Structure formats: structure tokens, C-alpha cells
Amino acid sequence: MRITAWLRSVSSKFFRGDVLAEEVSEELREHIALRADDLERQGLSRAEAERQARIEFGGVEKFREESHEALGGAWLETLLADIRYSLRVLRKSPGFVVAAVVTLAMAIAANAIVFGLMDGLILRPLNVPHGESLIGLPNGSDPGFESYANYKDLRDRNHSFVDLAAFSFAFVALDTGNDPAPANGFSVTGNYFDVLGIKPYLGRVIHASDERGQNSAPYVVLTWAYWHRRFHEDRGVVGRVVQINKRPFTIVGVTPPGFIGTLMFMSPDFFVPIVTPLSASTGDVQDVRTDQHGVFESFGHLKPGITQAQAESDCSNVAAYLAKTYPKEFSQRTPVVLGRVGLTAFAGGVKAFIGGLMLLAVLILLGACANLGSLFAARASDRSREVALRLALGSSRKRILRQLFTEAVLVSLAGGVVGLALSVVLLRRISAWHPIPAVPIQIPVAPDAKIYIVALALALVSGFLFALVPVRQILRSHPYEIVKAGPGLRVSRRVSLRDALLVVQVAICGVLVTASLVAVRGLMRSLHGDFGFEPRDTAMVSVDLAQAGYSGAEIPAMQKRLIHAMEGIPGVQNVGLVNNYPPLVYTGADQQPIFRENAGDLTPLHAAMSPFAYGISPGYLEAARTSLLAGRDFTWQDGKDAPAVAIANVSFAEKMFGSVNGALGRYFKLKDGTRVQVTGVMEDGKYLTLTEEHEPAIFVPFAQSPMAAAWLVLRSQRDPVWLAAAIRAEIRKVDLGLPSEVRSWNELLQPILFPARMATLALGVMGLMGAMLSITGIFGMAAYSVSRRLRELGIRMALGAQRREVLRAALGRAVRLLAIGSAAGLALGVLASHVLASIVYQATPRDPLVLTGVVLTMGLLGLVATWIPAQRALSIDPLILLHEE
Amino acid sequence: MGEQAQLLPGTLDLLILKSVSLGPLHGYGVLLRIAQISGQALLVEQGALYPALFRLVRQGLLHARWGTSDNNRRAKFYELTAAGRERLEEETQGWNRLAEAIGAALAARPEEV
Which residue, A232, A482, A569, B9, could crosslink A388 as a Cys pair with Cβ 3.0–4.6 Å? Predict the structure, then answer.
């Protein structure tokens, strides 16, 4: 009723505005005419009557306007008028508009992208039904439950989960009949898909009922992406038999598109049941309670009403029970901590990194606002005469401010739209990016509606923020003084808001520059770190003999054949072999508990330490260029039946036996009771992460601890492409059906370096943005101050001032502010860099190189920014200037 | 014909509603009608009528449509809506109560306090 009438009124005003205005005028005219008629009837002449009627009516124009306003929606009209006016004004200074829009677009893009990262990685749950309540044991948090047998006990004995599923990795060779190709998938428990609530896209998925003991479920479920890529969306795949590691599996179905399993960063190709062995050498996986690689993670939904804390203590109880029942095999030492499924062990690092980025992005936005604020303030004081005139003509200050705000919001919305477009494009690119070609890693950050809202909200807020800067100035301006004073500038020595803003900008830039330099320095250090091996000039060959059906004693024999085959390639200097994964590759380092020579109780709690353990061939040390400091390398005599020997690294020798020389010839025990003698000591190195500190490690002959999956290490100066082809040819000669991959060690180090690289890239970009903002800010202030004081500077020069004095007068203020801001920024940056040190390896903020770098950078920035204004100040010709006045 | 009385602020709307309730009118007619029913005691400033009329239309108390006046001139006629009728009722009662109360207060004699 009221609302509809109001709406009708406003909308008719909006759409038929002109017609309505005409109608109002007509109505008032008719009124006057009617009155004139009456007066005429009373005896006046027509002209007299009309004049009288008009006088009686009052101010027609005034009432017309009031009537028009009374129709409602006046604010809409003034808004439109403001917008039209602002557009006209902005069109007159395109340079300012472009600078402002670009600055704001960059800042908003930075914020939108970081928000997109946060949304995609942290806020958004896994892409499964009820993903936000999916909870599990993150990998690495408690090695006890990563064996399949222990998982089963946890599944059956817990009271908190509706059902507990688990998965592990399956890196295999999949042969569709044409040729075997590497494929990466998950091996999953029978209830995996049911716990997740995933329905098949084609065919069916695996269920718990399929698990009927060993070898009972030779089924494979394809992911949609793999079905699309390898099988070309052939709908007849269901029922087809493929060879996985030379064993037959039947394809039973395809999962829906968009489902990428339970790891956020990796999209698997297929799913196989965990109970179906993928190689002949893998024993009955269900029995090996100590095998810590049976299960990567287990997860499920909590029963309704159970809190996470209750679930954690429940799982800890199960752990305690297992520790009591199987003391030799179960070594759960810490209480169980549950976490959201998807990010696994990376969750903490990712959150910290994105948190840091978000802080920096907000800083950049504030810097941009400060920048634009001072630009706006400068413009406002330029327009002080116009404002004074408008005030004198009767405009209210509120009206003027409203128009200024409209201008600011228009500019900021333009910046927001451009920034949003930029961020959407970049986020899509990041989503489709495969940072490391060999590993199916991806970053799922596709933009959704939240990004749009955030970007536009930020734009509006920024607009308001920097429109606030000239407000005080306008509110206090007195028209009379301004018009009288003319274009001269009142130079005040007090600190103004714009000065403060500039200092803030420069400080923010200082922080960003410091942070980037710290990160870059840290990255450089980590790239040239002491790995304990030489990753250049290497060719690493991954050979998993299980994929070709080998088992048992065949394995070491075949590995020896492969080593000799590699030695035969011309140009190859050294060849070695290392089991499982080489150091620093794919975080595949194994730890084994070892005991003192005379230890009786070989339970995990009594272990002396848990060094990294590797099985290597003779020649590995030379191939990896790891120095042997004492004792001897392995020979081919150190075989399966020879006495157990080991080469330790310096850390192990010192920790276990006190010194390098003291370790030679001494013994220690493995957990199965074998006495092992130390026959050599090698240099220290890094095995699992770049940030570890001198961890102990032992190396045993590969024949004494055989494994089907191993890497051959070749050292050669030959062209890598040629070498790779030669290697593959040699391997095919040995066994035609053996798939292999050739990479250089540097390539394999990429995943380890990836986080540090990303951090440095992001910080570098932010530092660059901060620098650009500062340059524009300082340039703006310097140019403005010079242009305002041209007259004064001209007079100084005419009176004989030296170049240096002129420069000091013109730029002194700007340079002083730059110095203050830089100092503040540097100090803050050093403080903030402690946060950085957790992400970027070896990021020591008090590195003198970094400090000098920051000072130099800020100085350079100042120089660049004030160059043009300085030139302008120096080239003043006093005569010309004074003439112009 | 009594003396001219001052129009209290806020009562113009009430008078307009009352005049229109007696039959649809154009702006000039409302003016005449107010003068007529108040016994020529209330004379409204002519131009000030229109913002009030438009406001009442916006509030949904009056409905306007174009038509022809007696003199064959084009004019906009206003009539009461249902909401307007309600409002008129309310305001009239309120006004009467107020008038009564003030009248009673003003008629107080020294003996009654």
C-alpha cells in the first residue's frame, strides 16, 4: 500500500522523469489560469487577473521544485546528477584516472587472488558430499596407525566414527593392451566410496562387500579425467580387463567428473582395492602390522553428537590398547590429533603461508588507498576555488562532499572491476597449472561468487577510505579566503595528513621490500645448500621391478644386471643404485629404529635413535659424489649371505659412538636383532626436507635389504636427452616390458623447493607492487610540491640560490618523509621476517646483505621518483616564470 | 465570516484529506473548498498546496488522474484512497481529542485548581 505507492512514484519519476516534470509545470500553470479566470469574472482585465493570480500563487519555481521533490526518490536523482557530474570532471584529467584505476586494480587483484587461494585451499572443503565434516588422521601425525592392520583395529574398535576408510598410493604401470604407461592412483579400502558418499558416473564403484580376503577384488575404478584422457571417454570400458603391474584387473566403473579423491593437491588416475596386491613381492598386506606404508591416511564422518575432542581421546584409547597388546610392533607415543581431510600434513604450512600473504595483500591495499588518498587531496586543493565558488552560490558542504565521494567511488569501482577481471584470469590459470610435470599436483583455486563479492566490497571500502582524506580540508574551507588568496599555496610547516599517508605508504613498501629480499636470500641459500650429494650432471632412472612381475631373489640379481647395463653406456662416469627413493626426493625417506649393540629389549620405545635408512649399491657414493670420510665403500661381496655391514654418516657416528673414528668397526642392532658393523663413515647430508639439521643416517648394501622399487643414479656430462634415450634403450634390451622414467636429480628436487620458490615468487611480486606504489606516491608528492612552489623557487634562484639549495627547498620534505618511512618499514620488516623464517628456508632477517639491500632499494626508489620533479625544479627560468604571473 | 486563523503546521494535510473526501477535486478546487468549509477563516498559500498534494500521493493516501475541469481546462483530479480514508478518520479523532483536552485546560478557573 504505502510501499507500492512509493515505489510507483519513484519508478515513474525514474523512467518518465521528463514527462513528469512537464506535467507538474502544466498543473501549476493550470492552477494559475483557473485563479485568473475567477479574478476575471470578478471584474479584472485578463492581464491584471493573470498578474494577480501569479502574485497570489507565490514563487512558481520554488513550489515546482518542492513538488518535484515531494514525489519521492530525490536521493536517486541527486545521485544520478552527481554521477554525471563526476564523470565529466574525471574525463578532464585522464592521467589521474588511469593512475588511480591501475593502482587500485593491482591492489584489489592481489587481495582477490590471495582470498581465492584461501577460499580454494582452506575455506572450501573437499569436493565430496558433506566434505566439511570429513575428518581423519593426517599423514605423519602418528605413524602408528599407518599400517593396514592397525587401521583395521582402529576401524573396528573406535566409537566415534560412523565408518572409517583409508587410502594409500599406487604408482603403477597400467597396460590397456597397447603399451604399459605409468599411472598414479590410490589404493583404497572397500568402504572408501561409501564413506565419502560418491556415486559412480558409469558402472559401479568398489564396496566393502567386494573385500573377501586376499586377491578377491581385482577391480579398478577409473577417475573421469583419466577415463577422458587415456580411454577417450569410451563407454564400453566397463568390464574390460587391463594389466596393472602385469596383473589383470577389471574396470568396473568411472567416478563423476570433479571428484579427485581425498587429497586436495593431487588428482589420481584410478582406484584399486588396498587388499589386492599390486606386485608379487608385496606380502599379505593385512598381516604386516609394522609396515608403516600400508595406509597413507584414514578418515570418516563422526557420529552425530561426537565432538572432535571426544574422537581424539577415543582414538588415543585404541592406540593405548594396541601398544599394550603388540608392544613390539606398535609405537604410538603421542596423543592422536585429528584434522580436516584434504590438505594432510601441509595444512599448517599452507595456512601460515596464506595468512602471511593475506597480511601483505591488505598492506598493499592500504598503501594503495594512502596513495590515492593523497592524490585526491591534491586534486581537492587544486579545486579549492571551484569549491569556494559553489559554497558561495549556496551549495551545502554536504552536497559537495557527496559529489566528492561519488567521484571516489566511481574510480574505486572501476579499479575494482579491472582488478577482479585480472584476478579471475590469474586464478583460472593457477587452477589449470601443473607446477611439476612429473607429479600430478594441482592447486584447486577456481574462482567462485565469493571472490566477486570480496573484490567489489574491497573496492567500495577503499573508495570511502581515500575519499575521507580531503574531507577535513573541505569542511574547513572558507570561500572568501580562498577566492581572495589566489593560486598561491600556504606553506605550512606542520605535519599534515598527506605527509602521514606518504610515510605510511613508504613504510609499507619498506616492509614488503624487506620481506622479499629476505625470501630471495633464503631461497638462494637453500638452492646452493649442502645436500650431501651433487645434483648436477645426473640422470636418475626410476625402476620398479614389481611393475614387471619380478619378486624375491630375482630382484637384486636383475638390479645388478641393470647397473652393469648402465655402466656400458658411453659417457657414463659412475652408476649406483639406491632403494625406494634417493635423498630429498618426494619426501620418501624411511626411518628405522636401531638399538645399541647389547640391547636386549628390541621394542620401539628402547631404540637408541631412528636414523634415515637407505639401501645402496657399490658405486652409489661416487655416482652421488658423496664423500667417504673413513673406512670403505661396499663391494659386490657384501651380499645377502655376507656379514651385515653399514656405512653411517657423521651425525650417526658421533651420536652413537662419539666420533667418526670411534665408530669404525663398532656394532649396532636392527629391530629384527641383526648385528650390523659400521665399515665406513660418509659426510652428512639432507634426506627429508631442506630445513632439517644434521640428521643421522645409515646406508646398508642393497642386497642385504632388497626392495623392488629403486632408482639408478648415473653421473655423466652427456646431453640429457641423448642420455635418456640411451638409458631406455639399454633397459629395453634387458627386459622389454620394464617401464622406466629418467629425470635429473635437480628436477626431482623441484617439489622440495616448490614451497620456498612459491613463497619467494609471491613475496617478490608483492615487493614489486609495494615499490611501484611508493614510487608513484613519492613522485606525486614531489611533483606537486614543486609545481606549487614554482614561483617561490623562481624567486630563490633569481636571488642567487645554488642548485643544491633549490633542490633542498623543493624536495626536502619528500626526501625526509621517504627516509622516515624507509626506516620504519625496515624495522617492521625485520620483525615480520621472523614469521617468514618458518616458510622460507634460512631466512635470517638480520643478514647484513639484506639490510644494505633494503636501504639501497629504498634510496633507488626515492631517486627514481624524484628525478623528474628535481629536473623540473632545476630548469626553472626565473624570468619566464615571473612573466607568467 | 470570522477572522483569519493561523494554519498550524501539519494540519494542511488533514484539511486536504477532508476536502477531497467530500468529492474529487483539482488543486484549485481544494483551495476553494478549504476556504469554503472553514467559513473563509483558513486561507492556504496557493503554491504550498502542491508539495503537500504530491506528498500525499506518494504516501498512497490520495490518487491522482488527469481530467477536464468545468472551464474546459485540463486539470489533475485527486481523490481519496482507502488508506486515505482511514488516515482521515484517525487524524480527525486525534484532532478532536486534542482540541477537547486543550479546551478543557484553557477553561480551567482559579477555583478548580
Answer: A482
